[in-house]
Amino acid sequence: RPDYTEEASIVFPIDADGEVHEYTLTLSDNPLWEGTIISLRLDPGTQPGQVVEIDRIWFP
Question: How many other C-beta atoms are found inside a 10 Å radius of the C-beta of residue 27?
């Protein structure tokens, strides 16, 4: 069962300029991320009216 806690979170800024952007995250920067990733939780925004589109999530 995934541990969706604040301590296990990865927070990163996004560019809110209406353009398409690619983000590369290193999950191992957080020592609570180890082993095989079996699920993710995304909290893309908290402001009313925000729109977030995700084209893909890729693991090399």
Answer: 13
